[in-house]
């Protein structure tokens, strides 16, 4: 039999056509995946290297230490020092918000007058133009900062996959002594007058106290013993004279008394906030008053500055107040704007706090008399987290 050549069968032609049509897209998809993987890998490497470099930069030695008579703060002003701790010389003696102590008249090019203390730091009325300050930059990079008694607390947040947060304990030269890994967004930081007790608050969920959809995690560290309370939500709480238990309890804004045992803080539950007084040795807490947040104990331990909710809703809800612990009477301060900060006592008569900067950019440190008189004054523009080292 003689073999006879002929055209291939129809089925074979269709199969080859299908293979040809399907093969090119498949190869294209494979190439696209390889290219995308290479690009993502490169981006991840660059991102990681950049994050490492930033971390190294953030941990660089501080250009200064903790010295008495200096006002320390986190600089929010653009430039190399943005996000780092800076300082300015505090005016000699106790100064009030009007800048009366050690102050001299100044005016800008437009002729707007204010006052400037001996350091050149702005201390003016709300409608005055800021004057140049003489800050010293080069401190550690922190999201929140506080210092007292030769100890500083720096809360850091680092970019990465995933993002990381740390509580960094610093000595009097602002050198790292201990680093504690955290989760969440840094929010509040405090150090006791002796430098022994430290506390910080992180937002576990949410990022604002103005709503009810947030959760906090507050820790306390005894630097003398090294004992760390990772979350104080388990402290036995007495509310209105009765032991209280609820899964929605949140604590924040701790402030310590001079004995390093007594402390005050805010607790929230069922949509309400309370001032609590705590005892470290007994590890107990009891409510003292409703509608009081972010307490800050005065240097003489007789008064608490705090923010009080005076308006419903999430828009501008708070006003600063001071509570006399001897009489339990409170009075509002002259600052009428809503302050979402844990105010700091700069002396026995003056409170410092941060407010959003002009145009919503950065923040500025303002001061106001603690007795309810006077008017708010701009202390340092482009700054937050004030702490006066005594």
TrEMBL record:
InterPro entries hit by this protein: 6-blade_b-propeller_TolB-like
UniProt keyword annotation of Transmembrane present: yes
Keywords, comma-separated and alphabetical: Membrane, Transmembrane, Transmembrane helix
Gene3D superfamilies, per the entry: TolB, C-terminal domain
Highest taxon of source: Bacteria
SUPFAM superfamilies xrefs: DPP6 N-terminal domain-like
Regions that span the bilayer: 30-49
Keyword Transmembrane listed: yes
Protein name: TolB-like translocation protein signal peptide
Species in which this protein is naturally found: Streptomyces paromomycinus
């Amino acid at each position: 039999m003689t073999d006879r050549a002929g055209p291939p069968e129809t089925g074979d032609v269709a199969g080859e056509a299908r293979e040809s049509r399907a093969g090119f897209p498949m190869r294209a998809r494979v190439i696209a995946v390889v290219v995308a993987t290479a690009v993502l890998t490169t981006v991840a490497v660059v991102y990681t290297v950049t994050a490492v470099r930033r971390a190294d930069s953030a941990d660089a030695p501080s250009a200064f230490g903790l010295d008495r008579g200096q006002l320390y703060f986190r600089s929010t002003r653009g430039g190399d020092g943005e996000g780092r701790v800076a300082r300015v010389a505090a005016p000699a003696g106790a100064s009030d918000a009007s800048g009366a102590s050690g102050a001299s008249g100044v005016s800008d090019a437009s002729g707007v007058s204010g006052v400037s203390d001996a350091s050149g730091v702005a201390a003016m009325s709300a409608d005055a133009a800021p004057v140049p300050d003489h800050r010293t930059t080069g401190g550690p990079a922190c999201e929140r900062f506080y210092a007292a008694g030769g100890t500083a607390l720096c809360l850091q947040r680092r970019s990465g996959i995933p993002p990381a947060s740390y509580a960094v304990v610093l000595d009097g030269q602002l050198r790292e002594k201990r680093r504690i890994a955290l989760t969440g967004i840094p929010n509040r930081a405090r150090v006791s007058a002796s430098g022994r007790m430290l506390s910080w608050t992180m937002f576990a969920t949410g990022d604002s106290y103005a709503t009810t959809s947030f959760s906090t995690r507050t820790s306390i560290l005894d630097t003398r013993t090294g004992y760390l309370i990772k979350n104080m939500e388990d402290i036995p709480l007495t509310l209105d004279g009765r032991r209280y238990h609820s899964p929605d309890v949140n604590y924040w804004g701790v402030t310590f008394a001079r004995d390093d045992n007594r402390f005050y803080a805010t607790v929230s539950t069922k949509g309400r906030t309370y001032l609590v007084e705590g005892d470290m040795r007994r590890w107990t807490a009891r409510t003292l008053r409703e509608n009081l947040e972010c307490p800050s104990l005065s240097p003489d331990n007789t008064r608490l500055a705090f923010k009080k909710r005076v308006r419903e809703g999430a828009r501008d809800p708070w006003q600063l107040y001071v509570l006399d612990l001897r009489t339990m009477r409170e009075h509002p301060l002259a600052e009428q704007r809503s302050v979402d900060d844990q105010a700091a006592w700069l002396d026995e008569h003056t409170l410092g706090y941060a407010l959003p900067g002009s145009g919503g950019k950065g923040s500025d440190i303002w001061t106001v008399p603690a007795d309810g008189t006077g008017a708010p004054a701009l202390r340092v523009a482009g700054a937050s987290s004030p702490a006066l080292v005594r």
